[in-house]
Amino acid sequence: MESLKDTMTRLVPMDEEHYQPSLLSLQGLPSSAALSTLLSDLEQRIEHEEHWRRRSYLLADVALCERRLTLALQRDRIQATRPADCWCLGTGGRRIMTVDIGAPLSEVVWLETCGCEDGQREAIRRDTLIPEARAKANEVMRVGKWSHTGIPLRLQGCRLWTWPTASKRLDGAEMLGARQDWSVYIWGPTGRGKTGLAIGYAWEYLQRFAPPTIRFVDAPALFASLRATYNRQGESEDAIINLYARCGLLILDDLGAEQVKDTTWLEDRLYQIVGHRHANMLPTVITSNVGLDELAGRIGERNGWRIAEMVGTGNVLNLTGCHNLREEP
Ligand SMILES: [Zn+2]
Suppose 32 and one of 72, 91, 122, 256 were both cysteines; which one would form an S-S bond, judging by CB atoms 3.0 to 4.6 Å apart? Predict the structure, then answer.
């Protein structure tokens, strides 16, 4: 089938050696009757015009008018082959709009479509392409957001459906439901794919709720960067804490694994993040090697209690019984 672009630029066969008009350029021409009247007016004025310069202007107008009349008659011949209510000459519509369906492709559609069969076909095409282009734009925006989350490149492709243990995967997908304040706690020994699963949830969350920001941080690395603010100029401790306390969705990986001498210091810093997220019902995905009760012993009671309340009873995933992905099956 001929594409809209081809139809628009399709050249109308001309007998004359004049330029070949496209269907699109014929659409806007005045009626041939109006052009005939204008032409005879101009010819009469030439007869009575004695001034040579004004006469030459009129002659130029006549030539132009004749050309347009030829085109209008050409248009009329095409129009005669079209249904009675059709004004589009077979292009389907008028007023162009370009929709991007993912670079470098773009499509041309009509804003206004004709009532004829061609027009109806073009209307359907437009009404499918525009939502498609919007969905594409959203997807591009989401993927763009994704690559700036801090998720390690190797893990950015993790999705719920790529996670190997199906039953846990399904539990989680249901868990997400329609709640935007949803949080989850994933725990189990090393090698069970906790981080990959956490990222799969985060992606699912992004698709459903499009949070303004997403951050991924490895808990031991987070505490190391907070400690480092004591020894250097630059990023302040508050700035780092705010980054993780206020982001739209936080993935806090490997919580409880950090080795610290001063637990009070760690508890206080962590509480600034966890307490804020708890109070503001901000979704958080946490992974750990230990269960919730043991976690409280490592990060302090108040942090443990806040986390338990955020995730509720249903959103704790224990992967202990799952296959170790780092061992041969
Ligand atoms: Zn039409």
Answer: 72
What residue ranges of the chain have pLDDT lower than 70?
1, 14-19, 102-105, 163-180, 231-234, 259-261, 322-329
How far is ligand 1, taken at its centre, from the CA of residue 64, in Å?
A: 28
pLDDT at 176: 63
The Å distance, Cα 97 to ligand 1 centre, comes to: 18
Domain final residue, candidates 102, 118, 146: 146
Say whether both 97 and 43 belong to one domain: no
Number of structural domains the chain divides into: 3
For residues 244 and 215, give the distance between their C-alpha atoms in angstroms, rounded to a whole number: 7
Q: What spacing in Å lies between the alpha carbon of 90 and ligand 1's midpoint?
A: 5
Ligand 1 centroid vs 101 CA: distance in angstroms?
26
pLDDT for res 329: 44
CATH code at position 314: 3.40.50.300
Please check whether residues 170 and 254 belong to one and the same domain. yes
Q: Where are the alpha helices (DSSP H) in the chain?
A: 4-9, 23-27, 32-48, 52-80, 117-146, 166-176, 194-209, 219-228, 237-246, 263-279, 292-299, 301-311
Q: How far is the CA of 115 from the centre of ligand 1 (A)?
A: 6
Residue 326 inside a domain? The answer is: no
CB contact at 8 A, 92 and 127: no
The answer on 133 and 40 residing in a single domain is: no
pLDDT of residue 136: 80
CA of residue 74 to ligand 1 center, whole Å:
16
Domain extent for 27:
1-81
